Amino acid sequence: MSGEKLTKAEIIEQIYPRVKVSKKNIHTILDSFFEEIKKGLLEDKVIELRGFGTFEIKLRKGRKARNPKTGASVEVHDHGVAVFRPGRELKQKAWSLRE
After folding, report:
1. Are the beta carbons of 43 and 82 closer than 8 angstroms?
2. Tens digits of pLDDT across the chain (99 residues)
3. Do 4 and 40 reside in the same domain of the chain?
4. Which of 2, 40, 60, 62 is the most exposed place for a label (fewest CB within 10 A)?
């Protein structure tokens, strides 16, 4: 696996030939889509996109950690983290990439 990045601009370029919508409109639709996902997560909703996966906010428990620069002990409080769980099909295809 190369770990190459795929940017939003590249995604728009790939969608453009397949739909009869301007690049500007595709950009607006994508931005609106991501904004709705963010809004839903911040309202503590689970975002389920069938055939793709699920986004949600999970609580990460606080802990004692160490500052790698200074070696000093640091207290990390409980905090929310955004997580993604791939759907079955995506998970199976991703699993086979390493084989």
Report:
1. no
2. 567 899 999 999 999 999 999 999 999 999 999 999 999 999 999 999 999 999 999 999 999 999 999 999 999 999 999 999 999 999 988 888 765
3. yes
4. 2
- Burial letters for 36-73: b for 16+ Cβ neighbours within 10 Å, e otherwise? eeeeebeeeeebeeeeebebbbeeeeeeeeeeeeeeee
Q: Are residues 55 and 95 in the same domain?
A: yes
pTM score: 0.76
53 neighbors 86 (Cβ within 8 angstroms):
yes
Do 33 and 59 lie in one domain? The reply is no
What is the domain extent for residue 92? 48-99
Contact between 20 and 39 under an 8 Å Cβ cutoff? The reply is no
